[in-house]
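Before relying on records like the one below, remember that each one covers exactly one chain. Contacts with other chains, cofactors or solvent are not represented anywhere in the record.
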Amino acid sequence: MAKTRTPIFELRRFGITMAIILAIAAAFCPWQGRWAGPVCLGASGMMALVAVFCPNILKPFEWAWMKFSRALGVVTTFLILTLTYYLLLTPIGLIMRLAGKPGLKLKWDRDASGYWEPVETDGPSQRLDKPF
């Protein structure tokens, strides 16, 4: 597989973005009573200088950060979706079933002439200020 080259402006943008994030972290350190404020501020300055004057140095850091962020995105997405489903939607569905409230009308009714739901005549198309 051929290596793709990261354009200089992408590396500059990465370096300046990281410098801004480190500066924000440095600003919050004294507020939180942390000792790392000067370290973050120094790293922010170095990152900004490298991003402006020699961004090619940032290529391995950008590559590693992007790999890490993709992996973190996959893990957190699956974790958040799984927790949402099992801790929120499943109990709601079980409670609704125990209460006898049908979520969907899925029962087949041979005597029904159709399954259309009646719609109020003063529907959303008539009152545009209140669409629901």
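The longest helix spans residues 59-99.
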